[in-house]
Amino acid sequence: MTQYRHRTPQFESIVEHAMFIFTLFLCCFWEIVHRILQTISPVYKDLSSDVILITGAGNGIGRLMCLEFAKFCPNIVAVDKNEKSLVETSELVHKETGVQIKVYVCDLRHKKAIDELSTNILRELGKVTVLVNNAGVMNAKFIDEFTSDEIEDCFKVNVLSHFYLIQAFLPSMLNKMSENPISNNVPVKFRHPRGHIVCISSIAGLIPLAGGADYCASKAAAILLSESVELELLRLGVDNEVHVTRVLPFLLNTDMFRGVTPKHPLLFPIVDAGYCASRIVQSVRLNERVVYVTARYRILPILKMLFPTKMIHCLYEYANTGTYVDQLKLYRKKIDGANR
């Protein structure tokens, strides 16, 4: 009997670990089943009553997302630093869908401007329930060519603006907290929380790109920010009401990557921006967590972890990714010369 009692804690520990492993397999199985069911018969979220804010909406996939979201929601808020581009987006959306979107000019490099933006939007619209952090900057320079202002501006737009906008609009997604705190570290309950945070990051946030140190580092930071926010929502017990989606595109036929011609398009294809925008909207309607716009990119982080660094470098050289920034710089130089 004494020997049995002595082994009881160890036995309980084994049972606890076994139950945990079983739970992991069960979660994995359910995720597979859920994806199969969503593929066969997708259940889409109704966005008609949401307020959707999209940054970087003056051009590129930001403009295209305004067009796509307007098919499902009449309450679109477009944000960009270029007023002329915003007006063009607004006119295009109204012409194509009949929806009159609201436009706000804001330079996301400045926190004061973001604070004013959020104050005005909340005062006029009351809430934002879908936040799409899309605005991005890529300098296309090598490490010895950056100025300090260029590095800081890249991080201000690509990362810090995500922080400030989430801080500004997450409370309206969570709605009001209960006034009665719950003891024993149990998360407080919220009244009817509803929201969605979309982080438009990049494959470059998972794998490096020569000449893209600022861009890659900032996109990696944005990915981990969104993952951390997702865990905080899980801790609060509202992860099924307020969702987080990370979108990982790479080469798109937008101004950011205009001029890049991949050596092996099968490995690194240039993806149509319209398809990317449509895929992002679909991911929001399906509450997807991670979206690889090009499915084959899913294997890249796995290869990076499993194979020796030298082998990964050989892959980069084979794909000729080291010339992408050179191609961008040459193209932008031609454009600048033509505009003078």
From TrEMBL:
Signal peptide: none annotated. The chain crosses the membrane at residues 14-33. Keywords: Membrane, Oxidoreductase, Transmembrane, Transmembrane helix. It is an enzyme of class 1 (oxidoreductase). InterPro entries: NAD(P)-bd_dom_sf (IPR036291), SDR_fam (IPR002347). It comes from the Eukaryota. Its EC number is 1.1.-.-. GO terms for cellular component: lipid droplet. The keyword Heme does not apply. GO terms for molecular function: oxidoreductase activity, acting on the CH-OH group of donors, NAD or NADP as acceptor. Belongs to the short-chain dehydrogenases/reductases (SDR) family. This is SDR1 protein. It comes from Schistosoma japonicum.
